[in-house]
Amino acid sequence: MRALTWHGTHDVRVDSVPDPEIVNPRDAIIKVTSTAICGSDLHLYDGVIPSLQPGDILGHEFMGEVVETGSGSNLKKGSRVVIPFTISCGGCFHCKVQQYSACENSNPAEKQDMSAALYGQPMAGLFGYSHLTGGYSGGQAEYVRVPFSDVGPVVIPDHLEDEKVLFLSDILPTGWMAAENADIQPDDTVAVWGCGPVGLFAIQSAILMGASKVIAIDHYPHRLELAKKLGAEVINFRETHVQDALMEMSGGIGVDAVIDAVGMEAHGFAFDNMLEVVKQKVGIGADRAHALRMALMAVRFGGKVSIPGVYGGMTDKFPTGALMEKGLQVRSGQTHVQKYTAKLLEMIEQGKIDTTFLISHRLPLEEAPRGYKNFKEEQNTWTKVILKPGMAATA
Amino acid sequence: MAGQDDGVATLGKAAAIGLAVGAAAIGFLATRRDTGNDGDDAPGYAARRTADDVTGRTVTIRKDRQELYSFWRNFGNLVPIMENVTAIRTAGPGSDRSVWTIRAPGGRTVDVETEVTEDRAGEIIAWKSVEGSEITTEGRVTFADAPGDRGTRVTLVIDYAPPMGELGRVVAKLARREPAVQARHDLKRFKMHMETGEIATSARRRDQTRAAQMDDAAKKETA
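ok -> structure tokens follow
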């Protein structure tokens, strides 16, 4: 089959690789019909997440048709399914309390040590996201092996086309959980840093949850325009002093809740030497750490902090004083996708949520490398790239 | 030459020990060091200074302790869980001893014969290697109720004597057969098997699983 593989920093290629097979009883094989490039794939593209190996297949937002099932799968051949990016067994303590992204059994035993050293306990398995999270082959491919296929996949009714439901795999539940983590109350003013896909879906979710005002912060005019269309007020941080503006727009007490949908590329990854390498490159890392610091300053005393943005290691100059003295509540984490998919699918069916506005480009899988390059370099206009394995190459 | 061969064989044995121990079922007796440090409530194997080669690890498994005990007590069940064990059989007709066949470098295997020294259903299984066994080791696995409906806390404690002392330890480490690492991974696989019915792997094809690759490597080394 053809698949998008990682070969090094800013070096991804579409290669021919052997098709996947059923390996464990609960597996299914999916023929991919649509897959997306995620903002977090750019961390891999930029080479700032360790433990990738040349030839690893990337991609964790995908959907397709079931073509093969193991004896323990409950899927039916021919069904259309969206696959959550988190691989969850359904049987461990964390899965039972719906903390699916903390599944204890999906990251292979011998791969758990590295993330356990970083975080105290190991991470769960994720598709296409380095060997820290299991080294699972991802969805930017013609076929994918899906473990625990009786727990994660969401069966999609025929009348809903791919583009309406694809984002159930990651960014829609991620935006929703980000808003849920902000514990939004009807009179709340909520500030969202970052108008990428997750930030935009967090804005949409916060409004659906009844926030009285949502303020979006970014610097790309087109992305701010999308936020505005969703109903947010916007701040361009290149033009405006964000802290001053947020104080004024919240009536002088600070915003009730903040959502950091920026994340911090590269900073950390915990090993001291890596940290030093990053520090030498500074610039980007320092700027992005700024988003979380700003959020902690802007939030009111007793306010709520939600962090869906991806952080990997450690950061310097973290405002512990603001965190403690202001009595803040902080919630974060990789998304517990399986907890939200049924409800969000229903809202999509009812027309309460539309995610298609985000899609800016559709490319054949063969042109995935161009998709990565432009998603990184043309962020204003390349807001979301969908890859179609079935689409004929244009060039 | 004979002396050299012996040396190589002994090194191989040293590495295999780590395996055996890590495989966690090769056993021997629970030791004084497995509970209680001076002055706190932590298990002895968590001490900053451990005098012996004692390693211990706990996992919580969402299953009844009788079920977990029964699975473990039937030692043959442990073969797919313990990466370095290729076979487990009873020592002979009617014998209550077990013979564990452990992978060793060079595609070879080492046999370890063990006897059960303590056995209380749903609570504990302890074992040790019998006199004259190529590897000296002892261990115990205990099963205790976890709070509420969280299942069972399974604790594995293993003690062993490397065949060549410090050198044996180094060899085991180089061969990535450290008992602590192997025990940890084996326990995780035990948990996976009991909670999910399978052992997680990111292999995309059946011939890429670790088990398949280890068998493959062993065949090549033997050839």
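The domain at 23-198 of chain B is CATH 3.30.530.20 (Alpha-D-Glucose-1,6-Bisphosphate; Chain A, domain 4).
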